Amino acid sequence: MNPMINFKKEFAQLLSAQVDGQLTAEQIEIVLEKPKQPEHGDLAFPCFSLAKIFRQAPQKIAAELSEKISSPLFEKVEVAGGYVNVFFNKETAALDILKQVLSEQGEFGRSDAGTGGVMTIDMSSPNIAKPFSMGHLRSTVIGNSIALIAEKSGFKPFKINHLGDWGTQFGKLITAYKLWGSEEKVSQNPIKELLSLYVKFHEEAINNPSLEDDGRLWFKKLENGNEEAMELWTWFRDESLKEFTRIYDLLGIEFDSSAGEAFYNDKMDRVIDLIEEKGLLVESDDAKVVDLSDLELPPCLIKKSDGATLYATRDLAAALYRKENYNFVQSLYVVGNEQSLHFKQLIAVLDKMGYEWANTMKHIPFGMMLKDGKKMSTRKGKVILLEEVLAESIAMSAKNIQEKNPNLTNKDDVARMVGVGAVVFHDLKNYRLNDIEFSLEDMLRFEGETGPYIQYTYARACSILRKGNWDKSEIPAEFPLSWTEEWKVITALAEFPEAVKRAMDKYDPSQIAKYVIDLSREFNKYYAEVKILEPSEKKPARLALVSAVTMVVKEGLRLLGMEAPEEM
RNA sequence: GUCUCAGUAGCUCAGUAGGAUAGAGCAACAGUUUCCUAAACUGUAGGUCGGAGGUUCGAAUCCUCUCUGGGACGCCA
Fold first, then answer.
1. pLDDT at residue number A289
2. Among A39, A456, A494, A508, which residue is least crowded by beta carbons within 10 Å?
3. Cα Rg for chain A, rounded, in angstroms?
4. A126 within 8 A of A163, measured Cβ to Cβ
């Protein structure tokens, strides 16, 4: 239980008892707000809605209410404008919060809201034979963070890397390889060579449209198990996975399943049969579709005129497979914004098929990584490689360490944590749906609201604890403090559980990132203002506070998929 | 054309189940280290919240219209 909730509940109950039954404590709790200005206290009740009911000026109501509110939890109740503002008893509140954080440590903020239900998360899903681009980073880190937040919220996350290892693109690639490729070149530098073949295919296809037909033909052969096609496909796939694994290792991300699109090849007929059985399959221009016009959606294409399957068919098969094998209570798809229509159609088809669990599937869209204000296109070879960006970021971080802390023992490790952290945090700190204009300069900025800033805050706090010989298992029984300087840090700590809840409710890791920025800012101000290690009767309590900060910052970073170096 | 997402300080963004004086970071300028890591902190400057109506005691937040930009819209994924 979040300690702040006690204060909120107390205030709401006291108010409720004074309003002639016009508002319940629960209703009041919802409208209670945290004032923006610290001089307005810690919690405020706006009286405007009561003004109508009682036909009195809100200021007058507030004044009357304030006289009747008193509790040992509050040190002061004031009236300002139409608000009743209360100030918490800092000693009591601080003690409650610190004791809780220090005893729960990394468990602080955990909830059982998910009641152990399985949440599948379709994420990352890079395309085989294409480089791992900055675009895929978003799905990967957002999905990973949502999984961590879900676990903390009582779900059982199940991360699925739905590899793009099937589709017409492979027909195109095989065509291009047979025309212009060389085994030697591909072996030497697989991804780069395959990408340039893919790009060349699209360049040539502009003047030679029959290439597209060849591509489709080769894909058809692949679907029919043609030996040559299968051999090439397996080769391309293996080489790609090697590269992807290198990146996932760097990011510290693992999957519970890497069943890609090809995995569902033998599960397609059944889905199509099922759709047909329900009488949903309609023929249209030689293709098979499910009509969705009653929902004002374009029809969902199930089978092409040449009999080959499509993306939607595979996703339907995958949805069915996941429900049957994992029995999810929620199924998330962390996939770009531009595919919203596809997921609307997917859910609509499942709904029409009579699966009541269709509405437990959720598309978690995110904005695009833009280059010069435009979408990046693999076909035109306009991609930015994640691995190169990570390498630059790590190099930059190593350079900083060399300048600022040359005696650091595990330099390489820390450079990796900070370099990777900078890139991950940059991606997660803003609202998911915002487009991001790619800027290496922004990404490698290590000052201000950045990953390194948070990690630095953590390292500084750890340094103090080391010098103060703080034992983190020790929880002092009392803290003889007035808590004026530390009050903002303490309230920031108390807000962590709410940030986790918000992040879960909105499937939005940026809620955690923003929280961790706020907490770090408050701590850094405190650090600049108060000499924590200076001998004083307050020192043990201050160390306890610093210890609590390290625990929450570290846990916040963990939920974002980032590491926290104890020195940097 | 239809649908959809967005427009807040020079730049990047918070703030939206309506609430008090719209907040940060970067960039600019001025400071802070004999003292716990200056990847930090303090201060100055910077705004008709795209525009116009409307609802309301109260609107960046809700409704309508409008302008601008991104994206999607059947045989790619």
1. 95
2. A39
3. 28
4. yes
Structure tokens at A232: 């090439």
Q: Determine which helix (DSSP H) or strand (DSSP E) holds A483, and give its type and residue range.
A: none
Taking the CA of residue A506 and the C1' sugar atom of nucleotide B16, their distance in angstroms comes to: 14
pLDDT 10s digits, A135-185: 789 999 999 999 999 999 999 999 999 999 988 888 999 999 999 988 999
CA of A377 to C1' of B57 (A): 53
pLDDT in tens, A338-397: 999 999 999 999 999 999 999 999 999 998 888 767 777 666 666 788 999 999 999 999
Q: Which nucleotide is nearest to A335 (CA to C1')?
A: B77
Q: At a CB cut-off of 8 Å and minimum separation 6, what does A148 contact?
A: A157, A558, A559, A560, A561
Kindly give the pairing relationship between strand A300-303 and strand A330-334.
Answer: unpaired
Separation CA A294–CA A283 (nearest Å): 17
The whole-angstrom separation of Cα A260 and Cα A245 is 15
Distance of CA A215 to CAs A221, A249, A502, Å?
10, 34, 46
The side-by-side arrangement of strands in the sheet containing A369-371 is A374-375, A369-371, A436-437
Residues of chain A with CATH 3.30.1360.70: 3-88
CB within 7 A of strand B (chain A, 87-126): none
Buried b (16+ CB within 10 A) or exposed e, A537-549: ebebbbbbbbbbb
Q: How far in angstroms lies nucleotide B45's C1' from the CA of residue A186?
A: 57
**Mean pLDDT across chain A, nearest whole number?**
91
Q: Which nucleotide is nearest to A308 (CA to C1')?
A: B75
Q: A400 beta carbon < 7 A from strand B?
A: yes
* Chain B, protein-covered positions (CB within 7 A): 4-6, 12-17, 19-21, 23-27, 35-42, 57-58, 69-77
Report residue A139: phi and psi, to 5°. Answer: -60, -40
Looking at domain A3-88, its CATH architecture is: 2-Layer Sandwich (3.30)
* CATH architecture designation of domain A386-559: Orthogonal Bundle (1.10)
Domain(s) of CATH 1.10.730.10: residues in chain A = 386-559
ipTM: 0.95
